[in-house]
C-alpha cells in the first residue's frame, strides 16, 4: 500500500490492487470492501464495518489510518510507511524469538521420548525379571503391568506431541 | 538373504505395509521438494531483478525494454521465464505476457510484484521508485525466510534422527540386553506396544520437524517411511541383541 500510494496511486485503486493481489485474509477483506463500494456504499462506512470485524492490532491500525485519511484527509503515506517499518521490525523479532523458542525442542522431545520408554520398559519386564522373588515383592500380574505400559506409552506420545505443538502455535507465519 | 530379512517381519504386517506405503508416498514427497527449490531460486533472484529493472528505467528505458535487457542478462530460472514471456509478448500483448510470466513462476512473490506493476502501469505511477522499493522489501523478506530455514533445518533433522533412529535403537539395546528372548523372556505383547509407540513417535517427529520449517503437508509424505524405518530398527535390534 505504501509503495502504491507513495507513487501516486489513489486509495481506491490501491484497495482494489490489494484485493486482487493474493495477500490472504487482507485480500479477502478488501475484496468484500470493494464489492460493497461497487454496490454504492460509501468507502467510509465500509472501512468502519471492516474495523469492527478486525481483531489483530496491527491490521486494525492500518484500517484506522485509511479511515482517518478518508474522513480527515490525513497523511496516509507517511503513517503507513511508519506502521510498515514497525510491523516489519516486529515480524523480524517474532521470527528470531520463534527460532530461539524452538531451540530446546529436539532435546525436550528426546528427553520425554527416552525417559518414558526406559521407565516403562523396566515396568513391562519387571514381572519376568522378578519371577523368582514373589516372597520378597509379592505376585506381579503381567497383564496389569502391560496395561500400565500401554497407558504410559500413550501418555509419552501425547507429551511429545504437546512439546512439538509450540512449533505450530508460536509460528510467526512467514 | 532377502527371504531371511522378510522372515524377520513375518509377524509384523504393519511394518511391511508401512514400508510399501511409505515408498509409494516418498514418490509423492519428491515433487514438492523440487518445486520448492525451484520457487526459492526464483524468489532469491527477484530482488536483484527488480533492482536491475529500476536502474534501467532510471536510465531512461521503458519497462518492456528494461525487461528484455534483464531477460538477456539473467541466466537463472527467472531469466529463462522472463525470456519466454518476452518472446510471447511479440504475439500477444505485454500485459498478457506479464500475467503469463507471473502464473508460470508459480511464486506468490512474483505474482504480487507483477500485479502491483500492472496497477502502477494503469495509474501512470513512477516505476523506478516502485521497483526499487519492492526490491528492498523482498530482499528483507527473503533474508528472513533464509534465516528461518538455515536455523531450523538442523534442528528439524536432529529431531527426526533422535526420535526416529536413535530412540528405538537405544530402547531395543536396553530391552535386548536385559531381557533377551534367547533367555526365555516372553515379550511379544511388550514389543508390539513399543513398535506401535515408535511408529507414533516417528510420526510426531516428522510432523514437528515439518511444521518448524513451515511445510507440514509436504513433510507428511515422508511420515510412513520414517515410521516403518523406526519400527523396523526396534524390531530388528531386539531380535539381534536379544539373540
Query: Overall mean pLDDT score of chain A?
Result: 88
Radius of gyration of chain B: 27 Å
In terms of DSSP E residues, the strand content of chain B is under 5%
Question: What would the principal axes of the Cα set say about the shape of chain B?
Answer: elongated
Mean pLDDT of chain B: 91
Description of the molecule:
- The complex is a heterodimer of chains A (174) and B (243).
- Chain A is mainly alpha-helical and 174 residues long.
- Chain A has helices spanning 2-6, 11-20, 25-38, 43-53, 57-72, 76-101, 105-129, 134-137, 142-164, 166-169.
- Chain A folds into 2 domains: 2-74, no CATH class; 101-169.
- Chain A has 10 helices and no strands.
- The mean pLDDT of chain A is 88.
- By secondary structure, chain B is mainly α.
- Chain B has 2 domains: 7-38 and 147-241, no CATH class; 42-145, Up-down Bundle (Receptor-associated Protein), CATH 1.20.81.
- Chain B is built from 10 helices and no strands.
- In chain B, helix 2 crosses helix 10.
- The longest helix of chain B has 52 residues, at 127-178.
- The radius of gyration of chain B is 27 Å and the shape is elongated.
- The model of chain B has no long low-confidence stretch (mean pLDDT 91).
- The chains are: A mainly alpha (174), B mainly alpha (243).
- At the A-B interface, helix 1, helix 2, helix 6, helix 7 and helix 9 of A face helix 6, helix 7 and helix 8 of B.
Keywords:
heterodimer, A: about 170 residues, mainly alpha, 10 helices, rod-shaped, B: about 240 residues, Receptor-associated Protein, 2 domains, about 85% helix
Task: State the gist of this model.
The complex is a heterodimer of chains A (174) and B (243). With 174 residues, chain A is mainly alpha-helical. Helix content of chain A is 79%, strand content 0%.
Give the topology, please.
The complex is a heterodimer of chains A (174) and B (243).
Chain A lengths: L1 H5 L4 H10 L4 H14 L4 H11 L3 H16 L3 H26 L3 H25 L4 H4 L4 H23 L1 H4 L5
Helix pairs in contact in A: 2-3, 3-4, 4-5, 5-6, 7-9
Chain B lengths: L1 H7 L4 H46 L4 H11 L3 H15 L2 H12 L2 H15 L4 H52 L9 H25 L3 H5 L2 H19 L2
Helix pairs in contact in B: 2-3, 2-7, 2-10, 3-4, 4-5, 5-6, 6-7, 7-8, 7-10, 8-10
